Automatic annotation (TrEMBL):
Entry protein name: Transcriptional regulator with XRE-family HTH domain
Keyword terms, alphabetized: DNA-binding
InterPro entries for the chain: Cro/C1-type_HTH, Lambda_DNA-bd_dom_sf
Domain of life: Bacteria
CDD domains in the record: HTH_XRE
Pfam families on file: HTH_3
HTH cro/C1-type domain residues: 127-181
Taxonomic path: Bacteria, Pseudomonadati, Pseudomonadota, Alphaproteobacteria, Sphingomonadales
Organism: Sphingopyxis italica
């Protein structure tokens, strides 16, 4: 079942917001965030707060991993971790009672791939255009992000997408906002919403017809 979590102020200007899971001993305490699913590479969160794509969240239990908000829709947000959370850390949280084993899924959520997999999603073409406009080679991006040129080629061909903090690093290097890099093409909007409903339903262990996505345009 989902668990509650609360944000605490680190007191450091510009620091990532710190998110603490509520243990069973804290039952009845209202949390700022509902954690629906947790994986070694990402987390699905729900909150009344305003999510901002690209903002950083410090999960207090997650080794030194920082979550980066990658996708939002209404109260929902998906964070990707800049480094994978170890199985040992997740196991300790289960043993402590902070989370149940049913909350854990594996790897990265399907949503993190639909931008490249959906026909006409535009990310591959957008990345190619931004790179060429800036006079960059694939090798330049590869060296800056510490990946192989084959990885960059895969992004531009639509075979794969960046993982974790690579999104934010790529956007910064290209001089654009993360939301612009990910893209919000109006022609892709209906397909994007339909795909995300299916994937979120799978993560939430329900059916797509029960998923409602609202957009503030």
């Amino acid at each position: 079942m989902p668990v509650l979590a609360t944000f605490s102020n680190t007191g450091e200007e510009g620091a990532a917001q710190r998110l603490r899971l509520s243990h069973e001993s804290s039952a009845g305490v209202r949390g700022d965030v509902i954690v629906h699913c947790l994986a070694s590479g990402s987390a699905l969160l729900e909150s009344d707060r305003a999510w901002v794509i690209g903002e950083q969240i410090d999960f207090n239990f997650a080794d030194s991993a920082i979550g980066i908000v990658f996708w939002t829709s209404g109260k929902l947000a998906i964070c990707v971790f800049d480094q994978a959370i170890s199985d040992a850390t997740l196991a300790l949280e289960i043993l402590s009672g902070a989370i149940g084993p049913e909350l854990i899924t594996s790897g990265y959520f399907p949503e993190l791939r639909f931008h490249a997999q959906a026909e006409g999603s535009g990310f591959a073409e957008r990345l190619y255009r931004l790179r060429v406009e800036r006079g960059l080679k694939q090798l330049d991006i590869a060296e800056k992000l510490r990946v192989s040129t084959a990885a960059v080629s895969g992004w531009e061909s639509g075979r794969s997408v960046p993982r974790g903090s690579r999104w934010a690093e790529l956007a910064e290097y290209l001089g654009v906002q993360l939301a612009e890099l990910i893209g919000d093409d109006s022609n892709d909007l209906r397909k994007l919403v339909a795909t995300s409903r299916i994937d979120i339903a799978r993560l939430a262990r329900t059916t797509p017809d029960k998923i409602r996505i609202s957009l503030d345009l």
